[in-house]
């Protein structure tokens, strides 16, 4: 699994150029925000995430896009630097930001609090693997355009074909729509941000109970 998924990332994700409103954390860096080897470290963090799987997991979770305090710096979907650098976290990683302390992210904290007992029986990814932000404001977050998400359909279908999960979940309506547009028949779960933590947890709890994870 590691080899096949990594090959998809090498083909689709790592070479993609950043734009003035979408940043590729696996390819590029900013002098004012990132350490000199940040892209390499983020790819290493992503490889460490993949290395946690001995076999394809039965549950596939899709989110919308990297946030400015989570995957943008960690390289791992809905995961913060603070989590990766915590020795108790199931994936090891390093900080890539120039800040004195690793970044934390609210949604990442909720996500892993709920799902950590089931790792590595799930795989999480983003419908848009680049960080969408407002022009000239690299630490903002904007809603990806449908055309941007659709441009990444070959990667999404490649991941689904490679992993062949038993259950596919869209976390948030945008992720649900991205999966529906590739005929993946997703289950919708509320995103944990903006007051959605309880509904997110309830939705995940119901799914893992039915699946027997």
Rough outline: globular
Q: Could you say what the CATH topology is called?
A: Uracil-DNA Glycosylase, subunit E
CATH superfamily: Uracil-DNA glycosylase-like domain
Helix-residue proportion: 25-40%
Reading the helices and strands in chain order gives: HEHEHHHEEHHEHEH
Major sheet description: 4 strands, parallel
* End-to-end distance: 20 Å
User: What is the total domain count?
Assistant: 1
- Give the radius of gyration: 16 Å
Number of H/I helices: 9
Could you give the order of strands across the largest sheet?
A: 3-2-5-6
What's the total count of β strands? Answer: 6
Structural class: alpha/beta
The CATH architecture name reads: 3-Layer(aba) Sandwich
The first-level CATH class is given as Alpha Beta
Overall pLDDT confidence: 97
Share in β-strands: 5-15%
Chain-wise SSE layout:
Elements: H1 2-13, E1 22-23, H2 38-51, E2 59-63, H3 71-74, H4 81-84, H5 106-115, E3 122-126, E4 131-132, H6 146-151, H7 153-163, E5 167-171, H8 173-180, E6 187-189, H9 197-211
Parallel strand pairs: 2-3, 2-5, 5-6
Antiparallel strand pairs: 1-4
Helix pairs in contact: 1-7, 5-9
């Amino acid at each position: 699994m590691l080899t096949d998924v990594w090959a998809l990332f090498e083909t689709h994700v790592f070479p993609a150029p950043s734009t003035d409103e979408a940043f590729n954390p696996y390819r590029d860096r900013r002098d004012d925000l990132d350490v000199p080897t940040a892209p390499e470290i983020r790819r290493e963090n992503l490889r460490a995430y993949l290395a946690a799987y001995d076999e394809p997991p039965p549950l596939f979770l899709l989110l919308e896009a990297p946030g400015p305090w989570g995957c943008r710096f960690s390289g791992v979907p809905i995961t913060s630097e603070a989590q990766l650098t915590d020795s108790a976290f199931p994936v090891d990683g390093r900080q890539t930001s120039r800040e004195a302390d690793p970044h934390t992210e609210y949604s990442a904290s909720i996500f892993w609090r709920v799902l950590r007992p089931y790792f590595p029986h799930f795989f999480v990814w983003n419908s848009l693997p680049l960080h969408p932000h407002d022009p000239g404001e690299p630490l903002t977050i904007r809603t990806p355009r449908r055309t941007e998400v659709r441009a990444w359909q070959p990667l999404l279908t490649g991941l689904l074909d490679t992993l062949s999960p038993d259950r596919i979940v869209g976390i948030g309506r945008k992720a649900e729509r991205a999966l529906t547009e590739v005929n993946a028949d997703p289950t919708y779960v509320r995103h944990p941000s903006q007051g959605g933590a309880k509904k997110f947890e309830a939705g995940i709890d119901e799914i893992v109970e039915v699946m027997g994870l």
